[in-house]
Design a protein that fits this description.
The complex is a heterotrimer of chains A (408), B (332) and C (375). The radius of gyration of chain A is 30 Å and the shape is elongated. Chain A has a six-stranded mixed β-sheet. Chain A has a four-stranded antiparallel β-sheet with strand order 1-8-6-3, with no helix packed on it. In chain A, strands 5-4-2-7 form a four-stranded antiparallel β-sheet, with no helix packed on it. Chain A has 408 residues and is an alpha+beta fold. The longest helix of chain A has 17 residues, at 297-313. Chain A has three domains: 3-86, OB fold (Dihydrolipoamide Acetyltransferase, E2P), CATH 2.40.50.100; 97-144, Dihydrolipoamide Transferase (Irregular), CATH 4.10.320.10; 186-407, Chloramphenicol Acetyltransferase (2-Layer Sandwich). Chain A contains eight helices and 16 strands. Chain B folds into two domains: 7-188, Thiamin diphosphate (ThDP)-binding fold, Pyr/PP domains (Rossmann fold, 3-Layer(aba) Sandwich); 202-328, Rossmann fold (3-Layer(aba) Sandwich). Chain B has helices at 3-6, 12-26, 50-54, 66-78, 97-104, 107-110, 140-144, 157-169, 218-231, 249-259, 274-285, 308-314, 318-328; strands at 9-11, 30-34, 59-61, 82-89, 120-124, 150-152, 174-178, 186-188, 202-205, 210-214, 236-240, 243-245, 262-269, 295-299. In chain B, helix 8 (157-169) links the parallel strand 6 and strand 7 (174-178). By secondary structure, chain C is an alpha/beta fold. In chain C, the strands form three sheets. Chain C has a six-stranded parallel β-sheet, sandwiched between helices. Chain C has a two-stranded antiparallel ribbon with strand order 5-6. In chain C, strands 9-10 form a two-stranded antiparallel sheet. In chain C, helix 1 (32-57) crosses helix 12 (316-339). The longest helix of chain C has 26 residues, at 32-57. The chains are: A alpha+beta (408), B alpha/beta (332), C alpha/beta (375). The A-B interface holds A 106-111, 126-128, 133-135, 154 and B 208, 260, 287-292, 330.
């Protein structure tokens, strides 16, 4: 059994070390206490001594190279073990590129898989030599929206772009049987997307409370006036408009992180998270209200209702879910006070909205009862800093608490 | 407009004749020249009766001398005349390759913009039927390689007239490729004046599953194949390119973006052809829209055989096109 | 169309036998001023060609380059015999004809330098001199390709004069060719058509006795009786001394007038000699120095100088003076050409088509034509 010599931790804060110089060569005999190498730590150059007797069989990390603490850097053979020459060379600790094999994908299939978030590894190709073709991807996407009655393959598949964490709406009954259900494609996509978002985007949250009385008052008045034409504005419709209008002075909220750049979007397309009913497989989609900053409350309301209805009944077309630049997730209707959401890439922010709740508030030095709503922004720190988030919320607050400006 | 005129149906060759007659009436600089165009009334009767109307100074018989009369007409076009040169067959244009390619196509460039060449070369292109190889040339791929010329290939009488009028009015040399096999086909041609612009492809039938691109006579087989395939649930979008230079790649790209599959049918040989050029452009522009590589149907890569059965098997036909579409759409 | 009663021509207009010009009357010798003008033109061409060779060796000119030295009298004498608006088309040894026709040498030189100021904006080079203002329809690079074009230019002038203008054909086209072009098929097609169509075109054979390095009798049958080439098509012919510009002019004027009047083609063999190689890279190993010296003793410029000295008291000083002027003009042309910018990249896609589509950017005329009115 060869003895492994690992990169020692030679200081309290050391995480990696560099081999500056090997004092031994392969084949050398060493005894405990012999100097093996000079190691540069984050603080100093240190000596590495041997703890064992034996013959150096491998120097795995060469001079000048840096490795993590704990990495095997050399091996010794104890006396009596096989000859040095016969020891097969261990693989060098370089990163092995994983070579993808066996996956032929037609260009359009590759693109569609990206659009719909389909993991190509899970798709069985039906083309020549197992090539994944358009039909295969559409079949996967179709299964997700299978409830659509009698839809031909040409009908728009329901795409899935998850944006918020799933709140357990119904807790499992204790008497329910234990069971394992394979993930539906949508759940797979949600899992993949959200893990990716949460792992790669440096999230942080900023919360603010809003006095909702003026807005609720105005909503009541407007809905009375619009009742005759069948329009009922929701709180969310107001929020869509508020958020969209706030982009004018806070363009970072309508931007995407691009690796070595930040891309500022032209149009303001606000996504609204729509939960899907169980009979449609559950999950959620984000519908897009395009150019929301240029649309009236009335238009926003109509579009929003249309998207929700269509999402639940027939599924949305790619056009209706694509191109969001900012997302709102509202769980207020379920009585949630506040929560945080996971950013819907490539957005750089998402607003998680709770319910407007009656609370004791101080107005003009006196205690009163008012409606307050709490909303929490999740932000991509690579694009938006804390102060910018605060300024955005302040802009939002001014609009929400002075809603007359939403009408103009 | 009465119903009768709206429904006026004439032969392809009559449509060509009307185009020439109208343009010659409009512009005295236009004249028709070629072998047997005058007294004989045209080897394929395209110019029938034109000698009577315009006389021997404007409808001119030539000896069998393509190099000479092509060059002569190019010289006259340099001074601003607008010759229509009829090749009895484009196969015979090969002996005139130097004047039509070196002089007509390059004159404007080599003279630094001083002398253009407003000339139309027209005649039968492609296999006429058991004419064997020297008389069955499809010159489109050979000549389309040359910048400086334009190339139009009409499929029906409407386009034959409209495209030929545009060709005659064009200030550049136009290679106008007709098909002997189409001359007797009929179609609706209005009495009213009209032209068909160059560089605008025509969608001859709409479909969702595969874009089928062709020019001239093979379109007939494309349309037949399209009907056949529809029975199998494969819907082709058949595009008539109409002109090769300029090529309306935009219309083709637009269609491929929709269908994600494409088959090009080109009656010339496959090597370095119009078909390979279009396939290459589609691959470049639509790379991420393709579900399969662009399939092509050409004549077989051999000299055109005389034997009837060999010739039929050699040319692009409905069966070959159906097979190509099925393969391109993974329905093979 | 011929008169039906012209000898040897049937009513159909198709000549069945040789249509003879009764006799070539020699046109009168022009006055001293005209002769001095020709001398100056020949000196100008020769100096231009000397500087062309120099520029070629200095790598200012690329590609193929064919020098006209020795043959100057052919271009000068024949072009002097026709009207300014009679079309001219020729082969690739074309600098001399362009200058004789009136192109400013600076445009010719700039073309060879590949500059935007060239007559074809630097797109043609040495072999492709075009000048619309001077009815010069180009030098053409493919041997004999210009011969059907010459028929076409004559066809066009006849068509314009008779059909578009309703008058009488009143132009004659000059189509120059070298003896190498005699063996290309299209020349015979062109002559056949010219004869059938009664086209007023003069095929001027500049017989310098070599097609590249092949002596005429090695490459052309009936080399000593070239008139048979045109006789087969019923086309009248004549032989002129291509070294004697006065003789060249006097016969040529008479021939051109006949062609114009009768609307018939003609075949003229001008006997001459090129002093230099076929092109700049030709070592001239196929002929002897003695032959070259013998030919150069009988030089077209010397012949005219002698005539002027004998007839008009033309002095050596006057000749020197003229030579000096010519040298200055050519030097200025070289400078001008050298100062003309390289043809810019936006010319790449210009002049491919007259209209704009795809990558093509339409067409525009060279600077020479814009300034044409002034020079």
């Amino acid at each position: 059994m060869p003895i492994e010599i690992t990169m020692p931790r030679l200081s309290d804060t050391m995480e990696v070390g560099t081999i500056l110089h090997w004092h031994v060569a392969v084949g050398d005999s060493v005894s405990s206490g012999d100097l093996l190498a000079d190691i540069e730590t984050d603080k100093a150059t240190m000596e590495l001594q041997s703890f064992d007797d034996g013959q150096v069989s491998q120097l795995i990390v060469s001079e000048g190279n840096q490795v993590d603490v704990g990495t095997v850097i050399a091996t010794l053979l104890e006396d009596g073990e096989a000859k040095v020459e016969e020891v097969p060379e261990a693989p060098t600790p370089t990163i092995q590129k994983v070579v993808e094999t066996g996956h032929r994908v037609s260009p359009v299939a590759r693109r569609l898989a990206e659009v719909y978030g389909v993991d190509l590894q899970t798709v069985q190709g039906s083309g020549p030599s197992g090539r994944i073709i358009k039909r295969d991807i559409l079949q996967v996407v179709d299964t997700v929206s299978e409830t659509t009655a009698a839809a031909k393959t040409t009908s728009a598949p329901t795409p899935v772009v998850p944006s918020t964490p799933i709140q357990p709406l119904v807790s499992a009954s204790p008497w329910q049987e234990e069971r394992t259900v394979p993930l539906s494609n949508m759940r797979q996509i949600i899992a993949k997307r959200l893990v990716e978002s949460k792992q790669t985007i440096p999230h942080y949250q900023v919360t603010m409370s809003f006095d909702m009385d003026p807005l609720l008052e105005m909503r009541k008045t407007l809905n009375k006036q619009l009742a005759s034409v069948g329009i009922k504005l929701s709180v969310n419709d107001f929020l869509v408009r508020c958020c969209a209008l706030s982009m004018a002075t806070n363009p970072e909220f309508n931007a995407s992180f691009g690796g070595d750049s930040i891309h500022y979007h032209g149009p303001v397309n606000v996504g609204i998270a729509i939960a899907l009913p169980e009979e449609r497989g559950g999950g959620l989609v984000v519908g897009t209200i395009k150019h929301a900053d240029q649309k009236s409350l009335r238009t926003i309301s109509q579009e929003s209702q249309y998207l929700s209805k269509k999402a639940r009944e027939n599924g949305l077309s790619p056009d209706e879910i694509g191109d969001t630049t900012f997302t709102i997730s509202n769980l207020g209707m379920f009585g949630v006070d506040n929560f945080t959401a996971i950013i819907n890439p490539p957005n750089s922010a998402i607003l998680a909205v709770g319910a407007a709740i009656e609370k004791p508030v101080v107005r003009g030095g006196e205690l009163a009862v008012g409606n307050e709503m709490s909303a929490t922004l999740s932000l991509d720190h690579r694009v938006i800093d804390g102060a910018m988030a605060a300024i955005y919320l302040k802009t939002l607050k001014e609009l929400i608490e002075n809603p007359a400006s939403l009408l103009v | 407009m009465s119903v009768a005129t709206a429904q006026r149906v004439i032969e392809f060759r009559e449509a060509l004749r009307e185009a020439m007659i109208e343009e010659m009436r409009n512009d005295e600089r236009v004249f028709l020249i070629g072998e047997e165009v005058a007294q004989y009334n045209g080897a394929y009767k395209v110019s029938k009766g034109m000698l009577d109307e315009f006389g021997s100074r404007r409808v001119i018989d030539t000896p069998i001398s393509e190099s000479g009369f092509s060059g002569m007409c190019i010289g006259s076009a340099m001074r601003g005349l607008r010759p229509i040169v009829e090749f009895m067959s484009w196969s015979f244009s090969l002996v005139a390759a130097d004047p039509i390619l070196n002089n007509a196509a390059k004159m404007l460039y080599m003279s630094g913009g001083q002398f253009g060449c407003p000339i139309v070369f027209r005649g039968n292109d492609g296999a006429g039927g058991q004419l064997a190889s020297t008389h069955s040339w499809c010159v489109e791929s050979l000549y389309a390689n040359v910048p400086g010329l334009k190339m139009a290939i009409p499929y029906d009488p409407y386009d034959a007239k409209g495209l030929l009028k545009t060709a005659i009015r064009d200030d550049n040399p136009v290679f106008f490729l007709e098909s002997e096999r189409l001359l007797s086909t009929t179609g609706h041609v209005p009495e009213e004046e009209y032209t068909v612009p160059f560089g605008q492809a025509l969608i001859r039938s709409e479909g969702t599953d595969c874009t089928l691109i062709s020019f001239g006579r093979p379109l007939h087989f494309c349309l037949e194949a399209s009907e056949e395939l529809a029975k199998e649930g494969i819907y082709c979008e058949v595009i008539d390119g109409r002109t090769i230079r300029p090529l309306d790649i935009d219309t083709m790209v637009h269609s491929v973006r929709k269908t994600n599959a494409c088959v090009v049918v080109d009656q010339s040989w496959s090597f370095a052809s119009v078909g390979s050029e279009i396939a290459s452009q589609i691959h470049a522009i639509c790379f991420d829209d393709l579900d399969n590589y662009v399939h092509r149907v050409h004549s077989d890569d051999v000299p055109t055989p005389y034997s009837h059965n060999l010739e039929q098997a050699y040319l692009p036909n409905t069966r070959k096109i159906c097979e190509a579409v099925r393969a391109a759409t993974y329905n093979a | 169309m011929n008169d039906a009663n012209t000898t040897g021509v049937e009513a159909s207009g198709v000549p069945q036998t040789m249509q003879k010009m009764s006799k070539i009357d020699l046109a009168p010798i022009p006055n001293e001023g005209v002769l001095l003008g020709w001398l100056r033109q020949m000196l100008l061409i020769r100096e231009f060609e000397v500087r062309t060779m120099q520029a070629y060796q200095n790598q200012l000119i690329g590609g193929f380059c064919h020098i006209y030295i020795g043959q100057e009298a052919v271009a000068v004498g024949s072009i002097a015999a026709v009207n300014d608006d009679d079309p001219i088309v020729l082969a690739y040894r074309d600098h001399g004809h362009a200058l004789a026709r009136g192109m400013d040498p600076k445009y010719c030189m700039a073309e060879m330098f590949g500059r935007i100021g060239g007559c074809a904006k630097g797109k043609g080079g040495s072999m492709h001199m075009f000048d619309a203002d001077h009815y010069l329809y180009g030098g053409h690079g493919i041997v004999s390709a210009q011969t059907p074009l010459g028929a076409g230019l004559a066809f066009a002038t006849k068509y314009e004069d008779e059909i578009l203008k309703g008058g009488k054909s009143s132009h004659v086209t000059l189509c120059f060719l070298g003896d190498g072009a005699l063996n290309q098929g299209c020349f015979y097609e062109a002559m056949n058509l010219a004869s059938l169509q009664d086209l007023p075109v003069i095929y001027v054979l500049e017989n310098n006795r070599y097609s590249m390095g092949t002596a005429i009798d090695r490459g052309t049958s009936m080399a000593e009786e070239l008139h048979v080439k045109s006789e087969a098509f019923g086309i009248e012919h004549a032989i002129v001394d291509g070294k004697n510009v006065i003789d060249m002019y006097r016969k040529f004027k008479s021939i051109a007038d006949w062609c114009r009047e009768e609307s018939r083609p003609f075949f003229v063999e001008a006997q001459t000699y090129r002093y230099k190689g076929h092109s700049m890279s030709d070592p001239r190993k196929y002929r002897t120095k003695e032959e070259e010296s013998r030919e150069e003793e009988n030089d077209c410029i010397d012949l005219l100088t002698t005539f002027l000295t004998e007839e008009f008291d033309f002095t050596k000083d006057a000749l020197k003076q003229m030579n000096k002027q010519v040298k200055v003009q050519i030097r200025d042309s070289v400078t001008w050409a050298n100062n003309s910018p390289e043809t810019p990249m936006d010319e790449m896609y210009k002049d491919v088509y007259t209209d704009t589509w795809g990558p093509y950017t339409g067409t525009s005329k060279p600077e020479m034509l814009e300034e044409g009115g002034e020079t």
